[in-house]
Each structure stands twice: as C-alpha cells, then as structure tokens.
Amino acid sequence: EIVLTQSPATLSLSPGDGATLSCRASQSVSSYLAWYQQKPGQAPRLLIYDASNRATGIPVRFSGGGSGTDFTLTISSLEPEDFAVYYCQQRSNSWTFGQGTKVEIK
Amino acid sequence: EVQLVESGGGLVQPGGSLRLSCAASGFTFSDYGMNWVRQAPGKGLEWVSAIAGSAGRTYYADSVKGRFTISRDNSKNTLYLQMNSLRAEDTAVYYCAKESGFMAPYDYWGQGTLVTVSS
Questions:
Q1: Who among B45, B103, B111 is closest to A97 (CB)?
Q2: CB nearest to A97's CB, from B46, B100, B104
C-alpha cells in the first residue's frame, strides 16, 4: 500500500498569507496525485488532479506541483473561504489519502 | 446537474449487516467508475471500495476485504455497498464518489450517510 504523508498537520495563517502544503508518497505515484478541500459538515471538493491541473471552477490562487514522491499544494493568497482541511490522494496503485492538513485562521 | 444521494445508514450492532445505496443522476452512470470513501468522526478520509463502470472489476481496501461487497445496478443508476460483520471501527460517514475518468479523481461526491456500529 502506498502511504501518503502530509505536512504540516496544521498551518496557522492569516487571510492574505500564502500557504504551502506538502504531500510525500512512500513510493513513486508518477503524477497521479490529487488534492481535495473539505470544510466542516461538507463533502470534499476536488481542487487539483494529476498533480498540477486545476479542476473545473477552482480559482487560480490554487496551484499544484511535483511528481514522483514529493508534491505541493500552494495557495497564493488565502481568502476567508480557504480555511479548511486539505487532503492529497494517489491513484497510482489502488487509492489512498493522506491524513490531511488543516489550514486555520491565526 | 450531477447528484449523488446516499441512503441506508444507521445504528447497527457489532457483527451486524447494513446495505448502503447511492442514487445517481445527471450523468451516464454506466460510463463511470464509482467509489465509496468513509470518514470516521473527527478523522481523515479513507478509501473503501471501487467498481468499474461496466461493473466488471471491483477493488477493496484491506480493512474491509472479505466483509464488504460493492455492486451497482446500471439500469437503476444506483451504487451499493453491502457491509457484513461490522465492527466498531467501521463507524463513519460513508460517501459515494464519482470518478472523473477511468480510475481518475472524484469530481462529484454525495452528502454522506452515517453508519454507527455500537451495542
């Protein structure tokens, strides 16, 4: 099983700050990595697929990068609605999720 | 508009069984793989199971293999998850999710249905 490790567990930032979230895979997943955002009481929402492609309707302030085992999700300037939990997911070998990074208001 | 509506959750005793359903609309159901993902209270997301659009191939997480069975009825646009030998650690909100392409990330999710395993 491919294990995804996200860091940090929590990111305390202010609106307008930039955010960089990390996801590391235990073995190469090529570019088969996605990022989701989840707000309390809601289902997750797809943000990024195949490491760097924004899903439909996702603002340009969200960007993804990386390949192989190391990936990042970058939010260029946090809006109030961006404070949430973010998960990475790989689909290279079955499917697994990372444990999540919570982006909270400082 | 794509809609996924789960049902069938509830309280069940350890060792019991439950069948979840996910009614799909707004897309050609048989063209897409479908998945179940769960989330224990206060915890992260855990992939549970997947089924190809043609219902030919199925996949399971090790934690549920041999106890859960995924299936679909393309004539009814409905996805199912039969859960047997339930354990306390199966307590979670169960989401159905639509793949955006062949084994691709999920572009649509249901609202979830809560399964509680407790005596």
A1: B45
A2: B46
User: What residues of chain A lie within 8 A of the CB of B45, using their CB?
Assistant: 36, 38, 44, 87, 89, 97, 100
Walk across the sheet containing A62-67 and list its strands: A4-7, A19-25, A70-75, A62-67
SS3 letters across B34-69 = EEEEEECCCCCEEEEEEECCCCCCEEECCCCCCCEE
Helix (H, G, I), strand (E, B) or coil at A81: helix
Cβ–Cβ gap A91/B104 under 8 Å: yes
Average pLDDT over residues A55-82: 97
Q: What are phi and psi of A103, to 5 degrees?
A: -100, 110
> What is the separation, in whole angstroms, between the first and last Cα of chain A?
35
DSSP code, position B89: G
CB contact under 8 A, B44 and A97: yes
Residue A92, helix vs strand vs coil: coil
The pLDDT tens digits of the residues spanning B55-66 come to 679 999 999 999
What is the model's pLDDT at position B102? 84
Choice between B101 and A28, residue whose per-residue pLDDT is larger = A28
Q: Is the pLDDT of residue B9 over 80?
A: yes
Average pLDDT over all residues of chain A: 97
- Which pLDDT does position A23 carry in this prediction? 98
Of the CA atoms within 13 Å of residue B117, those in its CB half-sphere come to 18
Which positions in chain A touch B105 (Cβ < 8 Å)? 34, 36, 46, 49, 55, 89, 91
To the nearest whole number, what is the mean pLDDT of chain B?
96
